[in-house]
Amino acid sequence: MNNKTLWILILILGIIIFYGVYKITGGFSFKTISEQEIKKGIILEDMKTGWFISERALNKIKILPFVEFRVKNSLKEVISKGSINFLITFKIVGDKITFDSGWAIYPKKDIKIGNTGEKVKIWCIHGYVGKSAEAFERNKNVWKKLEATIFIKYKGSKFIKLKKVDIAQKIY
Questions:
Q1: Taking Cα atoms as reference points, which of 147, 150, 170, 145 lies closest to residue 161?
Q2: What is the dihedral of CA 38, 96, 92, 60, to 10 degrees?
Q3: Which of 32, 107, 135, 140 lies 20 to 30 angstroms, CA to CA, from 127?
Q4: In terms of CATH, what superfamily is 32-166?
Q5: What would the pLDDT profile of 21-79 be if each residue is shown by its tens digit?
């Protein structure tokens, strides 16, 4: 095999790899969107907060706080699969230090202009351990109240604060 044939094969392989990456990522975009456009165009709907039972073992359960919502696309473009990074910080109300955080890459499939995507549920790994859900419900007065701050990163933007919500003292 001579050098010319080798370079042609390398060029063809490069084109195949480039096309594969292009298809997997949904294309390449160098367009930036302002913070104001993101805040106005990506709307959080069907917001739900609370606690869920994550583990059951040895006569005990563990509950974790969560935030769940859907995204309505009011941008002037399709929100492509995996183009949003959500970060949620959980804090004890009144504390300055973050208690824990959780994140998600969203959406699982493209969201067309004017449409709403699937639900996303984000939680942290720290919570409460107790004997039963009923025991938690009876002792709500000793739960520390939590709040969550939702941040978004879209198309190369920095993380932008979207919303702060209180975590409901309810187990789902």
A1: 150
A2: 110
A3: 107
A4: Immunoglobulins (2.60.40.10)
A5: 666 655 655 567 899 999 999 999 999 999 999 887 778 899 999 999 999 999 999 99
